[in-house]
Design brief:
Strand order of the largest sheet: 2-1-6-7
Number of strands: 7
Order of helices and strands: HEEEEEEEH
Distance between the termini: 87 Å
Structural class: alpha+beta
Largest sheet: 4 strands, antiparallel
Radius of gyration: 30 Å
CATH superfamily: SspB-like
Number of domains: 1
Length: 146
Protein backbone atom coordinates (compact mmCIF):
# COMPACT_ATOMS: atom_id res chain seq x y z
CA UNK A 1 0.00 0.00 0.00
CA UNK A 2 1.37 3.41 -0.93
CA UNK A 3 1.62 6.21 1.60
CA UNK A 4 -1.20 8.13 -0.07
CA UNK A 5 -3.44 5.07 -0.16
CA UNK A 6 -2.69 4.49 3.54
CA UNK A 7 -3.76 8.06 4.39
CA UNK A 8 -6.86 7.75 2.21
CA UNK A 9 -7.87 4.51 3.98
CA UNK A 10 -7.19 5.95 7.44
CA UNK A 11 -9.20 9.10 6.67
CA UNK A 12 -12.12 7.03 5.38
CA UNK A 13 -12.14 4.91 8.55
CA UNK A 14 -11.99 7.96 10.82
CA UNK A 15 -14.70 9.72 8.81
CA UNK A 16 -17.01 6.72 9.25
CA UNK A 17 -17.03 7.60 12.97
CA UNK A 18 -17.62 11.34 12.49
CA UNK A 19 -15.79 14.57 11.63
CA UNK A 20 -12.00 14.38 11.21
CA UNK A 21 -9.44 16.94 12.29
CA UNK A 22 -6.50 17.11 9.88
CA UNK A 23 -3.08 18.62 10.70
CA UNK A 24 -1.22 19.65 7.57
CA UNK A 25 1.63 21.73 6.20
CA UNK A 26 -0.12 24.44 4.14
CA UNK A 27 3.13 25.24 2.29
CA UNK A 28 3.08 21.93 0.38
CA UNK A 29 2.41 22.31 -3.34
CA UNK A 30 -1.25 21.74 -4.18
CA UNK A 31 -2.72 22.93 -0.88
CA UNK A 32 -5.54 25.36 -1.58
CA UNK A 33 -6.62 27.34 1.49
CA UNK A 34 -7.16 31.06 2.12
CA UNK A 35 -3.87 32.91 1.62
CA UNK A 36 -3.73 34.17 5.21
CA UNK A 37 -3.57 30.54 6.41
CA UNK A 38 -0.64 29.49 4.22
CA UNK A 39 2.17 31.05 6.27
CA UNK A 40 2.29 28.90 9.41
CA UNK A 41 3.96 25.53 9.12
CA UNK A 42 0.95 23.82 10.75
CA UNK A 43 -2.67 24.27 9.84
CA UNK A 44 -5.56 22.37 11.44
CA UNK A 45 -8.76 21.88 9.48
CA UNK A 46 -11.93 20.00 10.40
CA UNK A 47 -13.46 17.93 7.61
CA UNK A 48 -16.92 16.36 7.59
CA UNK A 49 -18.67 18.69 10.02
CA UNK A 50 -22.39 18.40 9.40
CA UNK A 51 -23.06 22.14 9.76
CA UNK A 52 -20.06 23.22 7.68
CA UNK A 53 -19.62 20.26 5.35
CA UNK A 54 -20.09 20.93 1.70
CA UNK A 55 -19.31 18.34 -0.92
CA UNK A 56 -16.57 16.45 0.95
CA UNK A 57 -14.67 14.36 -1.60
CA UNK A 58 -11.70 12.31 -0.44
CA UNK A 59 -9.94 10.66 -3.37
CA UNK A 60 -6.53 9.27 -4.37
CA UNK A 61 -5.11 12.82 -4.68
CA UNK A 62 -6.32 14.12 -1.32
CA UNK A 63 -9.23 15.97 0.26
CA UNK A 64 -11.65 18.40 -1.34
CA UNK A 65 -14.36 20.22 0.57
CA UNK A 66 -15.96 23.63 0.82
CA UNK A 67 -15.24 24.90 4.33
CA UNK A 68 -16.37 28.07 6.05
CA UNK A 69 -13.75 30.68 6.97
CA UNK A 70 -15.19 33.75 8.74
CA UNK A 71 -18.62 32.60 7.55
CA UNK A 72 -17.35 32.65 3.94
CA UNK A 73 -17.39 29.38 1.95
CA UNK A 74 -14.00 28.49 0.45
CA UNK A 75 -13.18 25.49 -1.76
CA UNK A 76 -10.31 23.73 0.02
CA UNK A 77 -7.97 21.15 -1.49
CA UNK A 78 -5.34 19.25 0.50
CA UNK A 79 -3.07 16.63 -1.09
CA UNK A 80 -2.24 13.61 1.06
CA UNK A 81 1.45 14.62 1.03
CA UNK A 82 0.63 17.67 3.16
CA UNK A 83 -1.13 15.70 5.92
CA UNK A 84 0.91 14.49 8.89
CA UNK A 85 -1.74 13.85 11.57
CA UNK A 86 -5.44 12.99 11.59
CA UNK A 87 -7.80 12.38 14.49
CA UNK A 88 -11.45 11.87 15.21
CA UNK A 89 -12.83 15.23 16.23
CA UNK A 90 -14.99 13.72 18.97
CA UNK A 91 -13.15 10.51 19.75
CA UNK A 92 -9.86 8.97 20.79
CA UNK A 93 -8.72 7.57 17.43
CA UNK A 94 -5.82 9.22 15.62
CA UNK A 95 -3.19 8.43 13.00
CA UNK A 96 0.25 10.04 12.78
CA UNK A 97 2.63 10.07 9.82
CA UNK A 98 6.12 10.94 11.12
CA UNK A 99 7.60 10.95 7.60
CA UNK A 100 5.29 13.87 6.68
CA UNK A 101 5.88 16.06 9.76
CA UNK A 102 7.44 19.41 8.80
CA UNK A 103 10.87 20.03 10.34
CA UNK A 104 9.57 23.10 12.20
CA UNK A 105 6.77 21.08 13.83
CA UNK A 106 9.18 18.34 14.90
CA UNK A 107 11.55 20.92 16.42
CA UNK A 108 8.71 22.72 18.24
CA UNK A 109 7.40 19.43 19.62
CA UNK A 110 10.90 18.45 20.79
CA UNK A 111 11.30 21.78 22.61
CA UNK A 112 7.90 21.36 24.25
CA UNK A 113 8.78 17.83 25.33
CA UNK A 114 12.02 19.08 26.88
CA UNK A 115 10.08 21.66 28.90
CA UNK A 116 7.66 19.00 30.10
CA UNK A 117 10.28 16.34 30.80
CA UNK A 118 10.48 15.30 34.44
CA UNK A 119 13.47 16.46 36.42
CA UNK A 120 16.22 13.87 36.69
CA UNK A 121 16.17 11.98 39.99
CA UNK A 122 18.32 13.45 42.71
CA UNK A 123 21.34 11.28 43.44
CA UNK A 124 21.22 9.49 46.74
CA UNK A 125 24.32 9.40 48.86
CA UNK A 126 25.02 5.74 49.58
CA UNK A 127 27.58 6.61 52.26
CA UNK A 128 26.13 9.46 54.31
CA UNK A 129 28.26 11.23 56.90
CA UNK A 130 28.01 9.65 60.34
CA UNK A 131 25.28 11.15 62.43
CA UNK A 132 26.16 12.68 65.78
CA UNK A 133 25.29 10.53 68.76
CA UNK A 134 24.01 11.66 72.11
CA UNK A 135 24.97 9.88 75.26
CA UNK A 136 24.18 10.30 78.88
CA UNK A 137 27.10 11.66 80.93
CA UNK A 138 27.18 11.09 84.64
CA UNK A 139 29.27 13.20 86.99
CA UNK A 140 31.17 10.17 88.25
CA UNK A 141 31.82 8.88 84.72
CA UNK A 142 35.57 8.33 84.16
CA UNK A 143 35.21 9.10 80.40
CA UNK A 144 33.67 12.50 81.12
CA UNK A 145 36.79 14.49 80.40
CA UNK A 146 37.32 13.12 76.93
Amino acid sequence: MTRNADKFTAFSRLLAEGPVQVHLDPRVEGVHVPEELRSPFRLVLDFGLSRGARNLRPDVWGLHETLLFAMRPVAVAVPWEAIFWMRQLDGPAFVAYPYSVPREVAEAEARAAERLAPLPPQPTNPDPAPRPRLRLVRPDDPEEGR
